[in-house]
Specification:
By secondary structure, the chain is α/β, with parallel strands linked by helices. Helix content is 46%, strand content 8%. The chain is built from 18 helices and 8 strands. The strands form 2 sheets. It has a 4-stranded parallel sheet with strand order 2-1-3-4, with helices on both faces. A 4-stranded parallel sheet has the order 6-5-7-8, with helices on both faces. Strand 5, helix 14 and strand 6 form a beta-alpha-beta unit. Helix 11 crosses helix 12 and helix 13 crosses helix 14.
């Protein structure tokens, strides 16, 4: 690791700083699958110099546009960059520039329409955001706001995609089991804006930030928990910038909150059934590399009775991406699948029978990959694993 990134200095300046050393190429998950120089960070920046630093619009070809969006925004290239370029921010600025010219992939138009009309990324109306809660023992437990309740921002994927509905169910069940009241925004929760940011449509994400911040304040929420790393990252890093002020509440990821409960001895293990499981942990890019949260999920796993944690070869800041970030799945689903299968292979090499993550998108993508490969490994969210001992 080369050290922390420097503050972003503007699209043209960042493009000029790149010396073309190629360190980024060796760690890029997209280059590992495609193998063409144009798919490597160095290759995208080289042509980007001509387009964005040189103002040569004729270089903005369809193949190059596809390369810019064939990226998970995992930021592993930033970890190894000797020039300390904030490549994640650079890719997003490139996407914004392409979108401003009306040249972004057409697939994002429908996504933007869904968010505009439904306030979520699915084709479902937003009044169905709490459908997952019907499977709680007491579905009403999350609707009445109490002065000491913890706010829970569920996110679009966990709210509308049945494959990962167990994640919010498990988190709320853990909290209730240990005497902690939780409240949600329900249909007042709108998409956090991350999908629009990844599509280069930053202007359209502003109203979402304003709405969510206002509703959280209106409900008097003092602590907001997310189980989605991308929601967490968006609230933490994007909202203060676009709203021009600090958040009016404490923001934590569920892994941080649960780790804190364990450290404060507020978890009741008396009725917990020892799990007897060997697990490995996959660091989500937006929780690990992009937000610096590595220890909290590991602290949880190391404290669950009967669980043994074994690390994959690439972990923490060097963890391989699952392939599901940066809207890549919408742009190139086959590329996402190939990247995910590479991560499944690494998980299998540990001998673990359960692959744990702390991200609903990682769980969804890696589950699909494990099924395709018929791999003898189960993929779960960390909330699901923790809840298992009380079920």
């Amino acid at each position: 690791m080369t050290g922390s990134k420097q503050a972003f200095r503007g699209l043209a300046e960042e493009a000029r700083i790149c010396a073309g050393c190629g360190s980024c190429r060796s760690v890029c998950p997209v280059y590992a699958e495609i193998g063409w120089e144009s798919a490597a960070p160095r290759g995208k920046i080289t042509l980007g110099k001509k387009i964005f630093a040189g103002g040569k619009e004729d270089f903005l070809s369809e193949p190059y546009i596809n390369r810019v969006f064939q990226c998970t925004l995992c930021a592993r290239c930033a970890e190894v960059c000797p020039a300390r370029i904030d490549t994640r921010e650079l890719w997003q600025k490139m996407r914004q520039a392409i979108t401003a010219r009306g040249r972004a992939p057409a697939v994002f138009e429908q996504m933007a329409k869904n968010i505009e009309s439904n306030k979520n990324i699915s084709a479902n109306t937003n009044d169905g955001r709490l459908d997952w809660a019907d499977d709680l023992d007491d579905p009403d437990c999350i609707e009445a706001l109490e002065s000491n309740a913890v706010g829970y921002f569920v996110g679009c994927v966990a709210s509308f995609y049945p494959m990962v509905a167990e994640i919010p169910l498990s988190f709320v069940s853990i909290m209730e089991k240990n005497g902690i009241k939780v409240t949600v925004l329900g249909e007042k929760e709108w998409c956090c804006g991350f999908p629009l940011l990844g599509a280069g449509r930053n202007g359209e994400a502003l109203s979402l930030a304003e709405h969510n911040a206002a509703k959280i304040k209106e409900l008097g929420i003092k602590t907001l928990v997310t189980t989605c790393p991308s929601c967490y990252h968006t609230f933490k890093h994007h909202y203060p910038k676009v709203l021009g002020k600090h958040l009016d509440f404490e923001l934590v990821h569920a892994a941080q909150y649960l780790s804190w409960l364990i450290q404060e001895e507020r978890i009741d293990w008396s009725e917990y059934e020892e799990l007897d499981q060997v697990v490995t942990y996959h660091d989500p890019c937006d929780l690990g590399r992009n937000s610096g949260i590595y220890d909290a999920p590991r602290n949880i796993l190391e404290n669950i009775p009967g669980v043994t944690l074994v690390e994959m070869e690439h972990n923490r800041e060097n963890a391989l991406c699952c392939g599901g970030g940066g809207n890549l799945q919408a742009v190139d689903a086959s590329l996402t699948a190939a990247i995910a299968e590479r991560r499944i292979e690494e998980a299998l090499n540990t001998g673990a029978t359960i692959l744990i993550s702390a991200c609903q998108q990682c769980v969804q993508v890696l589950t699909d990959a494990a099924r395709r490969k018929k791999a003898p490994i189960q993929v779960m969210d960390i909330n699901q694993l923790l809840w298992m001992g009380w079920e």
